[in-house]
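Sequence in, structure out. Go.
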Amino acid sequence: MTCEHSVTRRITRTEKNGKITVLADSFEGKRLNAPNDIVVKSDDTIWFTDPVFGIAGEWEASRPSASRTTPTCSGSAPTAS
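Output:
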């Protein structure tokens, strides 16, 4: 899995065949800021941070400091900061 900053601002997974699958790229209709610090829990949920720093402006909104997604869903679910 990869946390992408800059232009794409998303969480992706590279499949065995090389295909890129987008796991999360937005929250409540707004693009992620600078996804970072990713981990997969034993129940397959994917946790990552999305700080409001790390990119040169163009932040879409403040959001929780940690978010969760699953391998089968798009977007992310907020968690407590």
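Check: The chain has a mean pLDDT of 77. DSSP finds no helices and nine strands in the chain.
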